[in-house]
Write a structure and sequence with these properties.
heterodimer; A: 200 residues; alpha/beta; 6 helices; 37% helix; globular; B: 67 residues; mainly beta; Ubiquitin-like (UB roll); five-stranded mixed beta sheet; 1 helix; 12% helix
């Protein structure tokens, strides 16, 4: 499949991204570069200097709302990708109202409790929409332990399932970026109906 | 009863347990990605009532923070 074929297929598609930190910002940028038609992004947080070790923001964006800065970065990369940015903390009702109609939803929160909340919400309220979760990506090295797994019909997980962030295991650009791009890569496969279990 | 828990054989004194009872015994307090019984999804609200019996295959996948 040529790049033109891929672009043609995904320009009519919408991806919802819940969270604009390490996973969300990098995943959004990858999908933007390939030419996804529309992104719906949501986050309530503000960029601080410590985010720049992994999140797709710039030094001169410190202090800005992540969701607005990411929308700006997406427009600078590919103005053809439509971005709908929501400055809010997501709860079950917000997830349903923002992401109903999306072709794929990317889970890009940091806290395990929030990950659990969106999984429960999407499985029960939007069961037909594929959800791609990031789970376990802290630290350095161990690239071969990062993988993609299909959990149920519409639930997929990227990561190593183990590496929780801590002072000794910080989230850093390479591993977080790998998982964010795994999420984007899987989203593309789903969007172009090219997903087959053996090729995850 | 003898069950398979996360691909490992485990033996419990009880003849049956609900998922929530299993979590208490195993001291599972982490956030959960999904729970499965013999390959089928067990929803969060069903963990209180779904019974596990001898020979069952139980999967409890946990979530970790970071992103």
């Amino acid at each position: 499949m040529t790049f033109e074929d891929i672009k043609k297929q995904i320009k009519t598609k919408t991806v919802g991204i819940a969270g604009c930190g390490g996973l969300g910002s990098n995943c959004a940028v990858a999908l933007t570069r390939v030419g996804v038609g529309r992104l719906i992004i949501a986050d309530f947080d503000v960029i601080v200097e410590s985010n720049l070790n992994r999140q797709y923001f710039f030094y001169d964006q410190i202090g800005q709302k992540k969701v607005l800065a990411l929308a700006e970065n997406i427009r600078r990369i590919n103005p053809l990708t439509r971005v709908d940015a929501f400055d809010r903390k997501l709860d079950p009702a917000g997830i349903v109202s923002l992401f109903t109609g999306c072709d794929v939803i990317i889970e890009a929160f940091d806290q395990a409790g929030m990950k659990e909340m969106i999984i429960e919400t999407v499985l029960s309220k939007l069961p037909k929409t594929p959800l791609i979760v990031g789970n376990g990506m802290a630290g350095i090295g161990k690239s071969n332990q990062l993988g993609v797994e299909k959990i149920t019909e519409n639930l997929y997980v990227c990561g190593d399932g183990l590496s929780e962030i801590s002072a000794e295991l910080p989230p850093l650009a390479p591993r977080v970026g790998i998982v964010a791009n795994m999420q984007a890569n899987l989203a593309l496969q789903i969007l172009i109906n090219n997903l087959n279990q053996e090729e995850l | 009863m003898k069950i398979i828990l996360n691909n490992r054989e485990e033996i419990f004194d009880e003849d049956t347990l609900t998922f929530e009872e299993l979590f208490l015994i195993k001291k599972f307090s982490f956030k959960m990605l999904v729970t499965k019984l013999n390959g089928n999804l067990v929803k969060k609200e069903d963990r209180l009532t779904t019974q596990i019996y001898d020979g069952d295959d139980v999967t409890v996948m946990h979530l970790v923070s970071g992103g």
